[in-house]
Amino acid sequence: MTAVQSPPAPPTARRRPGAMARIGLYGLLAANAAVVAVFFVQAGFGANALVVLGRLTGLYAALLMAFQLLLVARLPWLDRRIGMDRLTLWHRWTGFGLLWTLLGHAVFITFGYAEMSSMDPVNQLVDLAETVEGVLRAVVALALIMVVGAVSARRARRRLAYETWHFVHLYTYVAVVLAFTHQVAVGSTFTASTAATAYWYGLWGAALTAVLAGRLVLPLWRNRRHRLRVTAVVPESDNVVSVHITGRDLDRLPARAGQFFLWRFLTKDRWWQANPFSLSAAPDGRTLRLTAKAAGDGSAALRHLKPGTRVFAEGPYGAFTTLHRTRPDALLIAGGVGVTPIRALLEELDGHAVVLYRVNTESDAVLHDELRELALAKGAGLHLVTGPPVPDRLAPGELSRLVPDLTDRDVYVCGPSGMTTAVLRGLRELGVPKRQIHYERFSLAG
């Protein structure tokens, strides 16, 4: 049994980390939108209304592109407070907004100049690409953004392997560079004043620095420092396995119960593949443990790892932690292998806890013995809920019967998407305040 860390006291309602981070992000975006509008007005208006609209949409497309980079930079401060799943969702919707803004920019500019030159729009676009520096680069950037947008559509995303989707997504960075050089070459607002030039250089520099720091420098530095290796591989059932990992100075790794890593096991056939797995035990400063179900090639291969295998881990990620607690007591609801972060949270939590563990049959309840020991040691309640999906054994009536005081508890939910959605709907029907409900859809992480 791993040692239990002493968690900080639950934050008060006046100091909710997630809410403060969201307000900060919204405020940052609004402030930059206002600054862009000021510089746009200072640069002056043209005679053609379509060109003016084209310039304005182009500026806000540039701002959205920089904001996109911030959302996927995986900065620890933001991720711990908002969670990778929500940041990824915001990135997705911002991306579609960026696509339409860029299309608007291209259409307004092309039709505006076509109106002034009496050329048809197609020939006008070709003429601009041939004669104006930076326009061809902008056309290529738009084409790349359209391709990335197409593969990010829900139907296409389901058909692609994560690695293929991720590789195509990397072309976004090429589009960013092309768009920036286009803005430098032809952006009248960019060069309208020294202040405007400094602002745009600062904005792009900050966004790119955030990405490099969060997605490259920090993971490389942490892995060089901690030098993670597999120490043991323990089968938990026929299709579930736990991997134990150790390394140097793990007491300085800022990991918490409920978080996950993107794991790369550096074998000759799997070093390139990253998989998101939650910690299934609270970090104790000496070891880390993940527990995974064989749901694909990557997770199935874990069973064959050898002790001593080097590990490259990105993270920790996620806001599914005790940092967001608002009440002294908690209800933990797990479904299937979603029990892994729930088991870790139970180990870290103080106050009274109740655990509801939903599985089809008792033999599917991995880590159940550990949960039972932990619950006994901590004075927590544990209910193993078994049976087929219908009828719903976690329906609102059942939840209130099993945990009559659930509206006075923080509620943590982790499980299959369908179960999570149904439980969240039931909690809302029962009147559990939104600030007391904590969940994370880990499938968005990879």
Automatic annotation (TrEMBL):
<dbReference type="InterPro" id="IPR039261">
    <property type="entry name" value="FNR_nucleotide-bd"/>
</dbReference>
<feature type="domain" description="FAD-binding FR-type">
    <location>
        <begin position="223"/>
        <end position="323"/>
    </location>
</feature>
<dbReference type="InterPro" id="IPR050415">
    <property type="entry name" value="MRET"/>
</dbReference>
<protein>
    <submittedName>
        <fullName>Ferredoxin reductase family protein</fullName>
    </submittedName>
</protein>
<dbReference type="Pfam" id="PF01794">
    <property type="entry name" value="Ferric_reduct"/>
</dbReference>
<feature type="transmembrane region" description="Helical">
    <location>
        <begin position="165"/>
        <end position="186"/>
    </location>
</feature>
<keyword id="KW-0274">FAD</keyword>
<feature type="transmembrane region" description="Helical">
    <location>
        <begin position="93"/>
        <end position="114"/>
    </location>
</feature>
<dbReference type="Pfam" id="PF00175">
    <property type="entry name" value="NAD_binding_1"/>
</dbReference>
<dbReference type="InterPro" id="IPR017938">
    <property type="entry name" value="Riboflavin_synthase-like_b-brl"/>
</dbReference>
<keyword id="KW-0408">Iron</keyword>
<dbReference type="InterPro" id="IPR001433">
    <property type="entry name" value="OxRdtase_FAD/NAD-bd"/>
</dbReference>
<keyword id="KW-1133">Transmembrane helix</keyword>
<feature type="transmembrane region" description="Helical">
    <location>
        <begin position="49"/>
        <end position="72"/>
    </location>
</feature>
<keyword id="KW-0560">Oxidoreductase</keyword>
<dbReference type="InterPro" id="IPR013112">
    <property type="entry name" value="FAD-bd_8"/>
</dbReference>
<feature type="transmembrane region" description="Helical">
    <location>
        <begin position="134"/>
        <end position="153"/>
    </location>
</feature>
<keyword id="KW-0479">Metal-binding</keyword>
<dbReference type="Pfam" id="PF08022">
    <property type="entry name" value="FAD_binding_8"/>
</dbReference>
<dbReference type="InterPro" id="IPR017927">
    <property type="entry name" value="FAD-bd_FR_type"/>
</dbReference>
<keyword id="KW-0812">Transmembrane</keyword>
<keyword id="KW-0411">Iron-sulfur</keyword>
<feature type="transmembrane region" description="Helical">
    <location>
        <begin position="198"/>
        <end position="218"/>
    </location>
</feature>
<keyword id="KW-0472">Membrane</keyword>
<feature type="transmembrane region" description="Helical">
    <location>
        <begin position="23"/>
        <end position="43"/>
    </location>
</feature>
<keyword id="KW-0285">Flavoprotein</keyword>
<keyword id="KW-0001">2Fe-2S</keyword>
<dbReference type="InterPro" id="IPR013130">
    <property type="entry name" value="Fe3_Rdtase_TM_dom"/>
</dbReference>
